[in-house]
Specification:
Helix 4 packs antiparallel against helix 5 and helix 15 crosses helix 16. This protein starts with 7 loop residues before the first helix and ends in a 25-residue tail after the last helix. The chain is about 70% helix and about 0% strand. The relative contact order is 0.18. It has about 450 residues and is an all-alpha fold. It contains 17 helices and no strands.
């Protein structure tokens, strides 16, 4: 089947996403590694770095949502990329002069997390204006495929680079990836519609929560939102537990641990490439019900990991099954969100979605660590695997047809000026719904 062309403007947007994703892949886990190798941080500090930074970033992103909504999206994306480049660049500079501190890592982690949420909100709104509705699934599947390929290739290369050039090497690469992403977005040509403006009183009183109001008022989005927080939170909570189990108790070597997580990411290419065909054959609702159930049944397998080659193959098989399911489900979910959200609420809705996801990951990770401390990592993995089996009960029980997209409110409706033109704005996880994140 020939690859469908989505135009040069989408090509620049995809290039921006790709360079940033591969920078993230190279630097995956860089902050905890720097904390251990350069700052000799304790396990409690490393856990705090993994949970507190993204959680604080999610709080910062709450007031950013309406700010993003009422501005042109391409300048917002460029600003978020440049902000991340600037704040990430402070780490190698501080390291070179001996000034690097744990507090700095926490601050940078929070700023990067907040900027990521704002960027994804702006890019989702931009993508809906750029790509025809019939091509949204194709576009989201390409982002999903790029994300998983970066996770398959990036961490092994990043680990090798750190071994040769030092602990902040991948942070430099990640910072530069934001700069090149901003340049790619700058290369997109064409006028962008002026967004509507809200009255100041409206912004203060209601706009901060408008994304959550839209999600909770929509039966399909509401169930998918809760389901995604539970599934994503439980899956991500197993990562530190599995690290302790494999490296600390079962005697796996670091290269084996890296292989156990990098190799299954190839499954992301499989699932994302199947998304369009599976939806065309079975329909969106059946994909949610069937694949949403399949991605929940495999996690319990991690509780049965044993030492040696068999244990390594068990982890790879379980992770592969989860990733194939997630990468098929992810672009379908991302497309559904865009189809069921009017243009003038996309940024706030996607921000609310990302903030809820980050908060769920932080909560489940903290609870998993606490349970592992009271019992054992294997017990905590077993509990996570059993709890996630109930998550399909939170999937939508009936299909909700996508409404025709609402026009942007006019001056009389919103108190703001009418759009500058009636043409769609030219130009993204986005990350779609995947759980991969920058360090």
């Amino acid at each position: 089947m020939a690859r469908r062309s989505l135009g040069r403007q989408f090509g620049w947007l995809w290039a921006a996403y790709a360079v940033s994703a591969y920078g993230s892949g190279l630097a995956l886990g860089a902050f905890p590694l720097i904390a251990v190798l350069a700052l000799h941080a304790s396990p409690v500090e490393v856990s705090a770095l993994s949970a507190v930074g993204p959680a604080v970033g999610a709080l910062i992103a709450v007031p950013l949502a309406p700010w993003v909504e009422f501005r042109r999206k391409r300048p917002v994306m460029i600003a978020m990329d440049l902000s991340r480049f600037a704040v990430m660049a402070t780490i190698p500079v501080a390291y070179a002069f001996g000034w690097l501190s744990f507090v700095q890592l926490l601050v940078v982690s929070a700023v990067v997390a907040a900027a990521k949420i704002a960027f994804n909100a702006a890019s989702g709104a931009y993508l809906k204006a750029l790509v025809p509705p019939a091509d949204l699934l194709v576009a989201n599947a390409r982002f999903e495929s790029t994300n998983w390929s970066s996770l398959a290739v990036g961490p092994p290369l990043g680990g090798a680079a750190i071994g040769v050039f030092g602990p902040v090497t991948t942070v430099v690469a990640d910072a530069l990836s934001y700069l090149f992403s901003a340049l790619s977005i700058t290369a997109i040509r064409g006028a962008e519609d002026a967004p509507r403006k809200a009255e100041k009183s409206q912004l203060r009183a209601g706009e901060l929560l408008d994304g959550w109001r839209h999600i909770l008022a929509h039966p399909g989005l509401r169930t998918l939102y809760v389901n995604n927080m539970v599934v994503g939170g439980l899956i991500m909570a197993t990562e530190p537990l599995l690290a302790v189990l494999l490296l600390g108790q079962l005697g796996f070597r670091p290269w084996q641990y890296g292989l156990a997580f990098a190799a299954p990411c190839v499954g992301g290419l499989i699932g994302s490439r199947l998304a369009r065909r599976v939806v065309a054959r079975y329909g969106q609702h059946r994909v949610f019900r069937t694949v949403g159930t399949l991605r929940a049944v495999w996690l319990i397998g991690l509780a049965f990991v044993r030492p040696g080659v068999v244990g390594l193959l068990t982890v790879i098989a379980v992770e592969l099954a989860i990733i194939v399911s997630m990468s098929l489900y992810g672009p379908v979910l991302a497309t559904y969100r865009l189809e069921h959200t009017p243009r003038h609420r996309i940024a706030r809705t996607l921000s609310a979605w990302s903030i809820g996801q980050q908060a769920a990951i932080a909560v489940f990770t903290a609870l998993g660590g606490l349970l592992a401390g009271l019992t054992s990592p294997r017990t905590a993995l077993t509990v996570a695997g059993l709890l996630i089996l109930a998550s399909p009960l939170l999937l939508p029980r009936r299909e909700h047809p996508a409404p025709s997209d609402e026009p942007e409110p006019t001056t009389a409706e919103s108190g703001g000026p009418e759009p500058a033109s009636t043409e769609p704005a030219p130009a993204q996880q986005p990350l779609s719904s995947t759980t991969a994140a920058k360090p």
